[in-house]
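quick one before i forget lol
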Amino acid sequence: MTLLVTGGAGFIGANFVLDWLAQPGPAGRETLINLDKLTYAGNPETLSSLQGDARHVFVQGDIGDATLVARLLAEHQPRAVLNFAAESHVDRSIHGPEDFIQTNIVGTFHLLEAVRSYWGALEGAARSDFRLLHVSTDEVYGSLGPGDAAFTETHRYEPNSPYSASKAASDHLVRAYHHTYGLPVLTTNCSNNYGPYHFPEKLIPLMIVNALAGKPLPVYGDGLQVRDWLFVKDHCSALRRVLQAGQPGEVYNVGGWNEKPNIEIVQTVCALLDELQPRADGQAYSAQITYVKDRPGHDRRYAIDAGKIERELGWKPAETFETGLRKTVQWYLANPEWVAHVQSGAYRDWVQTHYAHEAAAAGARP
């Protein structure tokens, strides 16, 4: 049996590939065809442990390349397609939205067309058992007020950034292909993931990397933006469960039940680093916290109600935020080579330019 995974060299996709192939029993013996464009955030080094493993077939390419996707489907005959491929960083979408439109909307359209053609030619059990699992985000739902109930699967879409708008569009396309063509799709909307192999432009890995380098820890605005946090390995287990037992056409919200303001996240990271790798001068890492100008249209609060996936599929996260964050910090401390290799070239230049501009705009700490 075979799965086609798109975006499988990115943060969540690569964790899923590693996690899937580590499973005991028949699942761990399946072949994964891993299609990834290898943009700045796609890191094949994350998958280096699979080098020479016949279960992992890596193909560099774009989900928008309909000819390539059709060839992979015809050649490998996967029983399911899992779509992780996406441009996913809000700040980058603000500075350059076109890539997000092309990958998240146009790319998803081309993928859907190729999968629809492939599925339409299947027969019997191969046709009835086939699934397309589309991995999306809670950001499509917009922003919540302090007292608002958490996002459920029926919450109205109100995206507020080019990133979330492009993901919302892709979700709508996936839904339409189910209702129009009968394509057996599953959609998941997850909260903020964190964990090993996370590209250090996102909050938690950026704080770890900057803290260890003695650099400022940039916090947007007042730092009181609230997010729900999901350990990436818990997300992987949720996706396995949705693929196994989810009902075609359904949406499942995946969250960690961990609402935290950003400044608390940063302070907790600092406290863990104080414990696990103290600064040479004896000072607390929290002294490096620097407030910067808030980004345009910054959503104030996200919160996921993950009750449906627990009720219907029996899934809930295994990690608390405390256990997951400790494992994450320990992983970064144990893997400085991986961090050093991704902190180069276009990534480094972008982070330096972006945060230097925001810090200058912010002026003094509030």
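fyi The domain at 2-194+230-257+297-318 is CATH 3.40.50.720 (Rossmann fold).
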